[in-house]
Amino acid sequence: MDLLKKTIEEEGVVLSPSVLKVDGFLNHKIDPILLDEIGKEFAGAFRNLGITKVLTIESGGIVPAFTTALYLNVPVVFAKKAEPSTMRNPKTCRVHSFTKNTDYTICIEQNTIHEGDRVLFIDDFLANGQAYLGIKKLVGDCHARLVASGFCIEKAWQPGHSILKQDGFPFKVLASIRHMSPEEGISWNYDTAETE
Ligand code: G4P
Fold this sequence. Notes:
By secondary structure, the chain is an alpha/beta fold. It is 29% helix and 34% strand.
């Protein structure tokens, strides 16, 4: 997606060969025009899959998931990383974050995703694919179906891409980074940046 790549090139900061800072437009300060376009792009890609819910994990996934859900005209649910005391029947799953080297629990209220739902998972980054695996388990525990996933940015050399590809469900990446470094900047994967 050209607008996203252009924004990353102009405003993203490559902090290290594995960390891209995007808090000027994607996951802290938000560019509403860009996020609207991202939602339109994901919705267009998955419009024919009979999606009934968009699901994400707080916090970085919430805004792209919301704009996607708006264009698909379905509800959006975000899994929380702390169980609120008001949650009556939480469905939970442990997720490992390689980036932060910790485990965390994601939870949703049981009735937010239910049997028969066709779920689209949207997230800001595809890195190690652990968030995807947690979401897949959570959706299965709710007797619903995870039918597709969309990621704004992937770091293609990390394991997430292969995990998704092996699973065989459709997924779309809007900006696929082949390689990056603070010195050389970003090089893109042109052939994998569209729907798999
Ligand atoms: P995964 O999401 O593919 O499972 O990979 P990983 O466990 O490595 O990612 C953990 C967290 O780090 C996720 O956010 C993910 O969005 C974020 N992340 C991964 N790579 C980058 C990167 O290059 N830059 C930035 N800015 N973030 C990255 P999170 O910890 O779950 O929470 P949140 O930041 O969305 O609140």
